[in-house]
Input
Amino acid sequence: MFEMQPLPYDMDALDPYMPQTTMEFHYGKHYKNYVDTLNKLIKDTGFEDMGLEEIIQAAYQKPEHQAVFNNAGQVYNHQLFWKSMAPDGGKEPKGRLAEQIKKDFGSYEKLKEELKNAAVTQFGSGWAWLVWHDGKLSVMKTANGDTPVARGMKPLINIDVWEHAYYLDYQNRRADFVEKWLDHLVNWPALEE
Ligand code: MN
Output
């Protein structure tokens, strides 16, 4: 059985960019529902003794396991998302991470531009990602509960662009949400470690 991972900060710590009310719905209702639903779906099945990434990879592209894939993906994606943010975030990456960004994107500005573009152009619900794959960093987007983990990639940072992540605060202005997220919330120090 999977348990909810505690938030690494207080519910109101990301205010005003992701206020407490939004976190209460997002963490307390949406994320909780994915964890509860996954537990119900895997009970007494072959998935029960698997780890989260193992479940995602086993259920990937299997129509009969679509619901397990969706919920396991959303549990994984949200757990990375909570860690992808920090109060007082948004500072420029440093050290080896900064060097790798320069190598793979040219500059931090260019990486931010690519992340923003992926987040804004994801049609409907989904996620924008920075991933580590084949010895380099790259940006990608996925729909709904899909996750780079299913393709054997290593996700580093993700941005939730389901409307439940921003609609209470930004309504239809997804680009505005993503800009604020990159300027004030993204947690590069977690990756540098
Ligand atoms: Mn979400």
